[in-house]
Fold these 4 entries.
Entry 1:
Amino acid sequence: MTKKIINLLSSAAVVFAAGAVLSPSRADAKLRVVASIETLADLAREVGGGRIDIEALSRGYQDPHFVQAKPSLVLTLNRADALLYVGLDLEVGWLPPLVQQSRNSKIQTGQAGNIDCSSAITVRDIPNIPADQLRAMGDVHPMGNPHYWIPPDNALAIVRMLAKRFTALDPAGGPEFEKRAVDFAARLRKKVEEWNKRAAPLRGEKLVTYHKSWSYVATWLGLVEVGYIEPKPGIPPTANHTAQLIQLMKQQGVKLIVLENFYPNSLANIIGRETGARVLSLPSDVGASTAIHTYSDLIDAIVSALCAAK
Ligand SMILES: [Zn+2]
């Protein structure tokens, strides 16, 4: 055997060995799953259990519209077998460039490892104005409302969809993914009974929110949205809009203002003082505070805070 051929063979062996180490299709390898937000990571953990390694790209105390695109996230994405994201343009400002820079074909749009979780739910607030036109106006919800992951029906729909998508990526794990999704549904059913019972007195309660991000929650709990501190999703408040909102709140007797805990609450507090409304700074994602480790913790915290404000 010539030296050249030996060299060729040994480099092929190195490539093969590297491939074996990196390939997710090895029987004992875990599926490497990356999620854009912590709630999706937690739902993925519910489905994947010990068969997946899961990492979130953002923290629950950050505004998911505006996450800093750190270079380390490119490396995380480069190694991923699957990427879960909220979609509907929620992460459009930071995630697509990272996915592109990752040079990972498995997670590019259209691939089995590219999982848009909005495909699992019924999207609300779909505008009848073309998305490009809305984007140009600064509206950050041009595809419909992307803040859908809190109501239990939607969490369950995401979990069921993930069981199917993970099975496509790891067929041997299929029965386990399905079983875990069924177990999650059973546990969730009990929690939903408790949440609905606790939140029953909130039905019909009028509220104003900072961002148009509580609409799915309002529908679930029977709250009535009267207005938003932002004139349009992502557009900063103006003096004129704030004055009109205060007038509307007084007319309608709105006694509750809700905002995510990453928004500044100074303006909400001013509006609260003017109208006598209580300002509630709520978690909206797993990891929004140190006590919120799971999806269930998140909903417990939201329901408890809303009930305490009543
Ligand atoms: Zn939004």
Note: The chain is about 45% helix and 10% strand.
Entry 2:
Amino acid sequence: MNIGIIGLGYVGLTTAAVLAELNHHVICVDNDSGKIGRLRQGIVPIYEPGLEECITRHCQDGRLLFSDRMEDGFGGCQVIFITVGTPPLDNGSPDLSALSAVIIELANRIRSFTLIVIKSTVPPGTCEWVAKTLLDIGVDPTQYDVASNPEFLREGTALHDMLHPDRIVIGVRTERAASLLREVYTGIDTIYTVTSLSASEMIKYASNAFLAAKISFVNELSRVCDALGVDVAEVSAGMSQDVRIGPHFLQAGLGYGGSCFPKDVGALYHAAVSRGVAMPILRAVKEINDTQVDWCIDKLSESFGDFEEHRQVAVWGATFKPDTDDIRESRAVLLMKKLTESGYQVHAYDPLVKPEVPHVWWFNDMYDALVHCDALIIATEWSLFQDVDWSEVTKRMKGNLLFDGRNFIDRKKAEEAGLRYLGVGRP
Ligand SMILES: NC(=O)c1ccc[n+]([C@@H]2O[C@H](COP(=O)([O-])OP(=O)(O)OC[C@H]3O[C@@H](n4cnc5c(N)ncnc54)[C@H](O)[C@@H]3O)[C@@H](O)[C@H]2O)c1
């Protein structure tokens, strides 16, 4: 099938690669001509394991084409996915201006039946609005349909997640749209959840809000565990064995970040409150997350004792999670900012990125970042931080405090090397 994709970020590029793997021909459009230029030269502008190899292979076999503008008729595409960003506005609601601009431009280019699939995360009612907008512009309603197909990939494992999803959610108005989407995904072995347009849109927000709630719950628990002298890591492990609870998103730490959870929690909260519906649970989820970095800095300061003597720290990790170069809403970056504002001198290392953070010194080598430091803080759970030579860490540091901001380091190994281990909610 010929398929179009508009918006080539983390979701759009992964979708393009996966659809090419499924033997479709994909026309990929983004209005960032610099990005299109790089993609045409074989340079993938984001880091996602396996993505560059996959895109390069399918550029060579002619399954992927890149353009910075929509063509009339869009190359005979029967299905067009829209994967533009929907970042938050100041009031928490999503900015739908990119989606709106795409729909208006697309309206003038539809020449034969086209299924427009909204993959971007959008509030319930948006797909209906898209359908009505096309009608209002004068597009023949027999020539298009609109479907919702929210994306659940996780950055860092995006290709795998899209090729092996737990389920594919499709919101449709017609059986024709549902069967076209099933045809698009032929070759992917999973279950389909077929719903109305607005239920599909809501499933995405509800899922992200629920996962964020699990993280804030365990972070709240870490505070009471800290006060009671209980190890939250042992508690999480014990809870995880209950199949009704499960093991995922139950690790206490610096809180959730990234381009989705904070944005989607905020958008759902805004949608509720602006209709007079209070969401106290969601408000608390956000509140705990917003204060978790400060809570961790307080714990760090307490364990230092004399601040004047101890104020140089190394932070390992800057991305919002491992195996990505994405720093949007990263707790690690927020931690660095707050540490410098509190008077700490910060040395930083990340295997992929060096974001501009005022007064932070970046190092190319993770061990070099430790020199003269009183403490090491692990802010992102990159697996290479688990395999470090802890005796080398001890040798390079001035002090001996290790703050595991993600509760994922082997505590015993670090302590055997002479480090004083401090976790989140781990006495
Ligand atoms: N990143 C994730 O992990 C993830 C996971 C699931 C869902 N989502 C959702 O998917 C959507 C896209 O997320 P992302 O992280 O890929 O965004 P992104 O910011 O990485 O990419 C968006 C792309 O859209 C392009 N764009 C913007 N306006 C355009 C226009 N008018 N015409 C053509 N291209 C345009 C931008 O240039 C950019 O390349 C969002 O709604 C997000 O919430 C993201």
Note: The chain has a mean pLDDT of 96.
Entry 3:
Amino acid sequence: MVRGLRPHVEGEGLRAIEVYDPKLGDLDGALHLPVPVKAISRRGKYVLFDLGVRTLVLHLRMSGRLVWAKRKPGGRVRLVLRFPEGGVYFVDPRRLGTAEVVSEFTADLGPEPLGDLAWLPAALQQSRTPLKLWLMDQRKIAGIGNIYAAEILFRSGIAPVRRADSLTRGEVRKLQKAIPAVLEEAIACCGTTLTDGQYRGPQGEIGVFACELAVYGRDGEPCRQCGTPIRRTVLGGRGTFFCPRCQR
Ligand SMILES: [Zn+2]
């Protein structure tokens, strides 16, 4: 999403912040608008608009999306960031997303999941948590949600319930490769639009990684690798999909 918005907003003047949902509070009080967006970036699941002295921090949660458009799109628009050429519309039917203007972004987040994961073996050693919950714990590693945790574990051949500290060195190496590989592939596919149709890229793109999903949402369907029916359990309150044969 950030990569798609970048060419439209970086270096452009943010002229106004219009809040349509009082739940979000007053956002432009601390800003002297217009102000140029120095950069847009992502940290974990947060979207950060660097406005110089301040940072606008958005978290989309379960149903939020950012739409780049000239005119107001359909759906529940909670917030608009106005630029000369168009607007970034924060569409959020469930109203769980958050927006904040801060002087410094801070959050209790672990390291980023893309790139070098040399720190991973030592970090896993210190935890008895089931691996799937470990991967989704933003304080341990930032940015991984339910869909991608399931896919990463399938790619690594590791069962979701395995304790983080029980992994062999070979399994840790597989995990180190699978984490960035799955995420980069999903990003290249513009993400994952499920049958609910909710997730879209900033210009309405459908995230075609849904076609690549090996386990997520496929309970009862044959594993693409071995034909065994994919199973679903609940772990930490979240639906958890895995192949009982390929993942040990
Ligand atoms: Zn299998």
Note: The chain is about 20% helix and 25% strand.
Entry 4:
Amino acid sequence: MTVLEYFIISNILKKVKEKFTMENKVCKILGIKKPVIAAAMTWITNAEFVAAVSNAGGAGVIGFNAGVTEAATDPVVAAENLRKQIRKVKELTDKPFGVNIMIAPQLDPFTQATLDVFETDRPDFVLALPIEPANPEIYKRLKELDIKIVSRPMNSTVENMIAAEKAGADVLICTGSEEGGHAPEINVSLISRFPEIKKAVSIPLMAAGGIADFLAAKAVCAMGADGIYAGTRFIVSKENPAAQSVKEKIIDTKAEELIHIPANPGYLYLVPNATSLECKKMESDGKSREEISAYYSQQGSFRTGMLLGNQDEGFINCSQAINVITDIKTCKEIVDELAEPFES
Ligand SMILES: Cc1cc2nc3c(=O)[nH]c(=O)nc-3n(C[C@H](O)[C@H](O)[C@H](O)COP(=O)(O)O)c2cc1C
């Protein structure tokens, strides 16, 4: 093959790939190139990381406690922190990005303050975590502000997913119990849950929970997913603000070693350390999930373990899919890998 022939063929292939992703429903709705969203993760999804994902063609989401090292107890302070993060992302990219928001039955002062920020500093979409029965007023306000809603009910039951669709979500995420973060109270894996939800809803549906490489992305693409929502894989990226020791620890830990504990809410998969082992002991001793969560909160949980990298206190939380995470990649490499099955 001559250089010219090679150049022509690779350009045709590039155009075909672009056509596929441009026709992807999630890409169309969110205005992104690749149907991959890096999950909102408390403390470790700051502006620089979010912009790196969005610049890679996917979409980043500013999470709770983004860009700070101390939790804001005052809603006004939390809102100003968020405003700074939104402005920072906009300095670093002109591509779409999201902000994590809880949609509880009652409008709490933190969510109200977040909505106030959106009056002047808007993200392109929110990554909503509805707590059913989710407050319809919040959905309405987001619609009035022309902000797209990607909704991820914590328990992906048919009932909860349909409720989110009816309330005004533009995109839904179906989450399996193998996920990182607070895994669902109802213990159903993604492969068992996804087909049921795909049949029940009519808006685009992304998949989440244990997706950390090309093969897992390909599997959910084959099940009819419209895109990937991944957290743990992105922790082990060059641009993620988690401590370097956390990234290395996730690479070195095996799924078989993870400590599974009741949390408030749901469950957590934790890397073995003093805090996670004590939580497991508390569970065997018959302590309640409230007592267990009070203990790990006092130890500093996500902040101390993951952002500050203190592995004697706090904890390192991740999904079950860590055995396929063997190196620290750039966000662009991860977005490209997870988007690949959707491009052919
Ligand atoms: C360390 C960590 C913190 C998380 N924090 C949040 C959060 O604050 N809000 C949220 O909606 N989801 C949170 N999640 C869940 C993710 O948004 C997402 O559902 C999950 O990471 C997907 O599964 P995966 O980790 O297997 O990719 C967190 C996940 C992790 C690993």
Note: The two ends are 23 Å apart (CA to CA).
